[in-house]
Amino acid sequence: MPAKVVEILSAEEIRRTINRLASQVIEKSGDLSQLAVLGIYTRGVSLAQLLANQIEVLEGVKVPVGALDITFYRD
Prior knowledge:
This protein is mainly α. The protein is built from two helices and two strands. A two-stranded parallel sheet has the order 1-2. It starts with 10 loop residues before the first helix and ends in a 7-residue tail after the last strand.
């Protein structure tokens, strides 16, 4: 029997959350030219890319995105 899928956030709620996160990063960062966004493999990289894209939409500044692989550092 397949596992039951539970929706935590709708697509619209995710979009609003990303927008809110981007706005808060912009507000707190000051100089966006010094900003980079890092995501932890695997799902964190997608989130980092979405966040960087939204910052670019809001401010017109392309933010570099990087990825961290923590495989060897986990218990």
